[in-house]
Amino acid sequence: MTTSTILNSENAVEKVRTGSRGRTIAYWTVTGFFAAALTMSGIGQLVPLEGNVVLVENLGYPEYILAILGIWKLLGVIAIVIPGVPRLKEWAYAGFFFLMTGAALSHVLAGDDAFSIILPLAYAALAITSWALRPQSRRL
Length: 140
What we know:
The chain contains 5 helices and no strands. It is mainly α. It has one domain (3-138). The radius of gyration is 20 Å and the shape is elongated.
């Protein structure tokens, strides 16, 4: 092996390490923001504040849906941040995607403003990004 081959190999290994580290930082940044937002949302739904009640009633859903959504959001957040359980993580990500796209469609059908439609779609995009960036140890 020549000196240049050895140096090129070392550079390639360093690029992989750096890229992997950058990916890990990106994963935890996106996942942390997503988890924090969904935790606050889930807690907000478990505390039946007037705004949340009016929101679900305007969408045509019963008030008890708030408790169901709040509990599932908190359980989903736990599933994506704890180590291990990769199959459960897959289900949690899928659940968040369906929840958020369903919320956006509900707002479209109710004739709500653009912000009410864009916000859940932004959360769905964060879920996809977190899922795509997850480390090998968090994959099936």
